[in-house]
Design brief:
Layout (H helix, E strand, L loop, with lengths): L1 E7 L5 H10 L4 E5 L5 H6 L1 H18 L16 H25 L3 E4 L1 E5 L3 E5 L5 E11 L3 E3 L12 E2 L1 H4 L8 E5 L3 H12 L3 E5 L11 H13 L3 E3 L3 E6 L5 E7 L2 E7 L1 E4 L3 E3 L6 H4 L3 E2 L2 E2 L12 E3 L10 H16 L13 E3 L4 E6 L2 H6 L4 E7 L4 H6 L5 E7 L5 E8 L6 H9 L4 H5 L10 H10 L7
Parallel strand pairs: 1-2, 1-6, 2-3, 6-19, 8-15, 9-10, 9-15, 10-11
Antiparallel strand pairs: 4-5, 5-6, 7-16, 12-13, 13-14, 17-18, 20-21, 21-24, 22-23, 23-24
Helix pairs in contact: 1-9, 3-4, 3-6
Amino acid sequence: MNYDIIVIGSGPGGYVTAIRASQLGFKTAIIEKENLGGICLNWGCIPTKALLKSAHVFNYLKHAEEYGLNAVENPGFDFSKVIQRSRGVATKMSGGISFLMKKNKIDVIMGTAKVQKGKKVSVTDKDGKATEYSAEHIIIATGARSRELPNLPQDGKKVIGYRQALNLPEQPKSMIVVGSGAIGVEFADFYNSMGTKVTVVEFMPNIVPVEDEDVSKHLEKSLKKAGIEIMTNASVESVDTSGAGVKANVKTAKGNITLEADILLSAVGIAANIEGQGFEEVGIQTDKGRVLVNEWYETSVPGYYAIGDILPTQALAHVASAEGITCVEKIKGLHVEKIDYGNIPGCTYCSPEVASVGLTEKQAKEQGYELKVGKFPLSASGKATANGNTDGFVKVIFDAKYGEWLGCHMVGEGVTDMIAEAVVARKLETTGHEIIKSIHPHPTVSEAIMEAAAAAYGEVIHI
């Protein structure tokens, strides 16, 4: 029962950490209370993308004639099968994690973990039996859950979180989505595409509020065109679930109104899973619901580490994975580079997709940069035109003095697969002119990045 490293939680932070630890020669165990792969794989990132794929294929069927194909008469779907496919994808991926654990000789311990003093962990299995394990290094990667607001208590039936939204027994005719971050917008897009009447309520002035304002405004127009009703500068003050559906009292600039729907999805962020895990007893410090760590992810107690959504850093799967790898490589004594949290890509997989990295134009101006900004519309892209989807643009932001690539913001089909170019280029300190002179293949949508950079320097060809 003694290990070099014990990882608590098997999400994209935990399982990646365990694999890297094993690769480095550590005797490793991972503890999981539910399903390997955690929330992201089972109830988040992966199954939502499966749902969205079904919705986008359905949309293509409805527009077959636009591609010179015979019209599909009354294209329809079986909602339960759409959900079933999504769950099947998650199950398959979870099985893949199980294979990786065996391949890397990682012991999988099923149960609920609680850290104890003396570098020990107590694990209670489904039968209530507790077993104690010890390790030189304990890495906590317990992730997060849907955040509940006091005025929006989730009953799992009429007021739901993302987990229930992935597995509804039947399609609602109408839905209110509270919050327009990635989770809210993706579910709004999915259900709207399948025919549910969707209303999005956002407290901030713009949807996807962390994005560049140009992107937020463009996405709002696109979603409204698709039939989604969007209310910004609005907040749900209370809900009434006593009737057949939900009545939401919404505060707006023009006064309070009542929205009615079958279901309300609360997508107002996440809450870290830090309760009841022994942190207080061990002495692990937290602040504002997050665990405090040093630059190498060690907590206030030596030998105990934390990564992923329980930290104040960006709550993204790829961030959790990177933090875990960095943590175990530092434990091993390797020369490790600290994570640059200013170069983390963010992606939203609605239609059109959103992807970004670095500073927004507003942030760059607030930091005192003199800017060169370039935008290239996908309507001028040959590949996007051939694809039949020209909704969107690429926007790049450079420091006028040194040519540093400060930010890249995209909206359009497939941009989540394009943003990595900007991430790598920024990592390598590439300048605007180097992007312009890097020959991009034609015809591709990725040419829009080169064209946007050229637009920033007054050298754009195709607009």
